[in-house]
Design goal:
3-stranded antiparallel sheet, 15% strand, mainly beta, 86 residues
Length: 86
């Protein structure tokens, strides 16, 4: 199963990320697994970070690979649509 995000991709951490809440993986080889959220991870709320490594979960460059992140810990990407100006 493919992962929702790829290495090098920018993601925004959920603004409502909460320690103790459940955020299971929705893609990849560990779909359904929840790595958990530590209180120290809350300081990254709303920040844009870079996927560094994938091994059943994501690690991020900006936190020095300190934490395990799931795809539901990131804000859903909004699709860009353009309306014709004609």
């Amino acid at each position: 199963m493919d992962y929702k995000y790829k290495i090098g991709q920018k993601v925004r951490i959920r603004k409502d990320l909460t320690a103790g809440a459940e955020y299971p993986m929705q893609s990849g080889s560990r779909c359904g697994w929840d790595p958990g959220v530590a209180e120290d991870m809350e300081k990254y709320r709303g920040q844009i970070m870079t996927i560094d490594y994938i091994k059943g979960y994501y690690t991020l460059c900006e936190d020095n690979r300190s934490w395990s992140w799931s795809d539901t810990m990131f804000e859903t990407q909004k699709r860009l649509t353009c309306k014709s100006l004609l």
